[in-house]
Amino acid sequence: MNSVISTIKNQLWAKVMLGLFLGVVVGVFFGPDFALVERELALTISNWLALPGYLFLAIIKMVVIPLIFSSIICGIAAGDSVDTVKKLGVSVVFYFIFTTTVAVSIGLLFANLLQPGSYLGSELLGLSNQATATSVNQALLDSTNIPKRLASIIPSNPLSSMASGEMLQVVIFAAALGVALVVMPQNKAKPLVSVNLSLQDACMVIVNWVLKLAPYAVFGLIAQVMVQMGLDALSGMLYYMNTVILGLLAVLLFYLSLVVFVGKRSVLDFLKQIRNAQLIAFSTSSSSATMPVTLKVAEENVKVNPTVSRFVIPLGTTINMDGTALYQAIATVFLAQAFGIDLTATDLLLVLVTAIAASVGTPGTPGVGIVILATILSTVGVPIEGIAIIIGVDRLLDMCRTTINVTGDITAAVVLEKLIKK
Length: 422
Fold this sequence. Notes:
- The structure is a single chain.
- By secondary structure, the protein is mainly α.
- Helices cover 81% and strands 0% of the residues.
- It has one domain: Sodium:dicarboxylate symporter (Proton glutamate symport protein).
- The chain is globular and about 65 Å long.
- About 6% of the residues have low confidence.
């Protein structure tokens, strides 16, 4: 008993797990299942319980842009030549495309084998409504102009991109600036590199401060989710949820195999080292909010070379969304089955390509996968009104897929470090 109390006092992951457990318990008792108080009062209480979580996310978001910017510049500038930077950059792109393709393929395989849509009650199909269709349609129209979207990744105003939180544009500008510093004479590049090193260190000091708030943030955010959803809301969609979770576990096993056979590391040691980042990702549902913790874990716990981690992880937070891509593949097939639409081999190939393309540049924020899903559904002719069916359980699945996204970023850093050395 004393050892358990000591672990909780001294280990962040143990405090977070305790907060997670207590959050579920409190949320269930105040939620619709036990309804200890009136519904309106319960929702008000849940909002106040979530206050530490709101503060945690706000502070993390405050430092995430300057941290990404400085980390990428410092990571690239640490390279000894343009050839090193080029080699790392090309390896990262091909690696991310490869793992995303594997994740989407796993999603399509599980969805077609388990047929989750065939278990959906007809009464749930009545949940779809025109309001959801209208809002998603607008998002769809904004995202289908592919050439314009490709051109827009080049930031015309880097300061504006930073102010509006456009991660991919910030990454591209920082990468260009980092390469320029490598090419420049060292005496001219050194002052700007030193400034960014100081900026990065200052951001990490703030991250260390806010991590003390993490257990309370997890407690409040999880309690709020359970108060809003309740246990009964999950039962009707249980088979679909299980399909997504099994797919995510398969992707996790794929990552662990890369860690063992390419990274030459122990699975148990690796999972133990990254658990803090996984728990924060699970509770916040945001890869971007978790990024400072992910970077800290990769360098201090996993011992990844900063030259690799400071380039791969910020970039992975922006374009490496394997958990989200898998979820979109399963959700598309699930809704097609629910509406009685047979997807051909060509349709499935189209889902594969669209999910890979859509995952690039997807903001690492809660709920964004729903908007991207609309694009994929429309591509294969599945009514986007069906999103209303799954939106009730999306937050819980969002927590799970964000955990996989963050695990994938750290795995990428481990694997690419080994490949670059070779």
